[in-house]
Amino acid sequence: MTMECRIYTESLTALMDGELPPDDTKTIRAHLLVCRSCDAEYRSLLFSYNLVGNIQLIDSQPAAWTVIENRIRTAREKRGFLRRLLFPNIWVPVGALGTLVLVAASVFWFIPSQNKSDTQAMQQILRSYIQERNREFGDGAVRVVNYNPFRDNNRRPKGNPFKTE
Questions:
Q1: What kind and span of H or E run contains 63?
Q2: Residue 20 CA neighbour count, 13 Å, CB half
Q3: pTM of the full predicted structure?
Q4: What Rg, from alpha-carbon coordinates, does the chain have?
Q5: DSSP state, 54?
Q6: How far is CA 80 from each of CA 51, 57, 86, 91, 92, rounded to the nearest angstrom?
Q7: Please, which residues have CB within 8 angstroms of residue 14's CB and are 6 or more apart in sequence?
Q8: Residue 80 DSSP code
Q9: Residues 6+ apart with CB under 8 A from 15
Q10: For residue 27, with 0-12 CB atoms within 10 Å meaning exposed, 13-18 middle and 19 or more buried, which class applies?
Q11: How far is residue 65's CA from residue 58's CA, in Å, rounded to a whole number?
Q12: Which run of H or of E encompasses 9?
């Protein structure tokens, strides 16, 4: 479907309702003779229009409409204080949250904890790392200096690398 077809298909309902000027009507009808997809869309809309036009209205008793109107207009029954206190709408999310907390707590409760020896070994490794770090950097001076191959001793800017020329 081309952009031109899209313009024509958007105008099909206006064509069917007779809302278009005569020049536009002729242009769209000429396009429908040439374009199969637009013609198929037009025939589909025409079929829908005919179906809607042939619908028979249901004759109902006037009393039925008054009953329906009364049901719509009557206010909902007010709930009592005790019922509002015990069953407000807030209890549904509170109950869901409580259930979620209970499930999470039971999962963590039943997961076996790590051995104390593993925990003690990890603490010993951390202590030795901290002691080694304090020995190396305790006085604030770095003892081992590694050469940085990307360091440029020239501090003058070299221009904008993002500029296109």
A1: helix 62-73
A2: 17
A3: 0.36
A4: 40
A5: T
A6: 51, 44, 10, 17, 19
A7: 20
A8: P
A9: 24, 25, 28, 29, 42
A10: middle
A11: 13
A12: helix 3-10
45 class by beta-carbon count within 10 Å (0-12 exposed, 13-18 middle, 19+ buried): middle
Per the CB < 8 A criterion, the answer to whether 124 and 117 are in contact is no
Paired tokens of 110 = 């039943």
pLDDT by residue, tens only, the chain of 165 residues: 677 788 888 888 898 888 999 999 999 999 999 989 899 999 999 999 888 888 877 777 777 778 888 878 776 666 666 666 666 677 778 888 899 999 988 887 777 655 666 777 888 888 888 888 777 766 666 556 566 666 666 666 667 667 665
Query: Using CA atoms, how far apart are residues 127 and 121, in angstroms rounded to an integer?
Result: 10
Q: Which residue is associated with the tokens 């079929």? A: 47
Q: Which residue shows structure tokens 């003779």? A: 33
Angle, CA 164 vertex, CA 160 and CA 165 arms, to 5°: 105
Q: What is the CA angle 9-14-16, rounded to 5?
A: 90
